[in-house]
Amino acid sequence: MDIEYIDLKECILAENEGDAQEVRDLLKEKNVILWNVMSSPGSGKTTFITDVIKRLGSQFRFGVIEADIESTVDAEKMHALGIPTVQLRTGGGCHLDAAMTMEALAKMPLDDLDVLIIENVGNLVCPAEFDVGANIATMLLSIPEGDDKCIKYPLMFTVTKAVFVTKMDVAPYFDFNFEALEKNSHRLNNDLRIFPVSVKTGEGMDEAVEWLKQQFN
């Protein structure tokens, strides 16, 4: 008898594709844009998202899905702003998938939202592999992480529409090569937009937020 080979990852991803389409269908019906924000831990996702909400809060009604392995720290920050928030604790899982997203949608006031933000688990590998049904996927890359992450984690730079290079205020203290980042990133994704930003100083945020506004409309 021959050995039977089953590619479990392929099966899981195939099932996830169906769930992702269900998410898209539901949000299209509700006229809600789903924005998936990915990055490694400590890149400044929560700070960046909070600033975007403050800048665009008069134009769009936001909700947030927070994904973390255990804590509720980020969800509490969003809730304090009066933003509808659902916390998904993955219990060790390194990413969200579309089925988890659908569970969160059931707890969200979708009729009262224009833009729903997923702050994905801090990880540059797994979140890039799983379609959560988002209309737009972006990533954050902080200056301290270095410019070589597109070489080490190419899929993340392939599946996203924009990279927000955060913590520009500390750039003088790090050897970060923007030319190398752009060159290597565009080899993977020629349409990728790269925005150097600092929430602390405001550098680049006007341009970044204007681009996001166009994606939300």
Descriptive report:
The chain is an alpha/beta fold and 217 residues long. It has one domain (8-216): P-loop containing nucleotide triphosphate hydrolases (Rossmann fold), CATH 3.40.50. 41% of the residues lie in helices and 18% in strands. It has helices spanning 8-30, 45-56, 73-80, 98-105, 126-129, 149-152, 154-159, 178-188, 205-216; strands spanning 33-39, 62-68, 85-89, 115-119, 136-142, 162-166, 193-196. It has a 7-stranded parallel β-sheet with strand order 3-2-4-1-5-6-7, with helices on both faces. Helix 3 (73-80) links the parallel strand 2 (62-68) and strand 3. Helix 1 (8-30) packs parallel to helix 4.
> Roughly what is the average pLDDT, rounded to an integer?
91
Structural class estimated from helices and strands: alpha/beta
CATH top level label: Alpha Beta
Quaternary structure of the protein: single chain
- As a percent range, the share of strand residues is 15-25%
**CATH architecture type:** 3-Layer(aba) Sandwich
How many strands appear in the DSSP assignment?
7
Shape: globular
Lateral arrangement of strands in the main beta sheet: 3-2-4-1-5-6-7
The DSSP helix count reads 9
Distance between the termini: 58 Å
Radius of gyration: 17 Å
The succession of helices and strands, N to C, reads HEHEHEHEHEHHEHEH
- CATH-wise, what's the superfamily? P-loop containing nucleotide triphosphate hydrolases
Number of domain units: 1
Low-pLDDT stretches: none
Q: Please bin the fraction of helical residues.
A: 40-55%
CATH-derived topology:
Rossmann fold
Largest sheet: 7 strands, parallel
